[in-house]
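pasting for the record
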Amino acid sequence: MYETYTTIIGTVVSEPRRRQTTTGEEVISFRVACNSRRIDKRSQEWIDGPTLYLTVSCWRRLLAGVGLAVAKGRPVIAHGQIKTNEYVTADGEKRSDLEMTANAVGLDLSRCVVTYQGTPGADRPQAVDRAAEADVAPTAA
């Protein structure tokens, strides 16, 4: 009822993992690190702020594009519903993790250059598909 939606900008810090749920649905999940940076007025150097880590889960329409474009180390922007997952480890320790169920995921074009490919299987002309060839060139931040 009171879902919380947000947009995150960060870097993928784990290899995306594709799995199938017990009901047969496929999902791709990956971890993202988001941190702020600012200029220290005294030293004139960049300083990293605290880092937010969260798991991004992608379902249905996102599977094809995310599977081709997202990889560890790539800059991403993701929008979706966030929630806290609480669980107990095998050692009996209580933990929590922040998870986003994504509605949209894309590469952060302020930090990389990509080649557009279109949507596989769509009823419209498509551009050449090069994401699978890691056609992403990072730029300096």
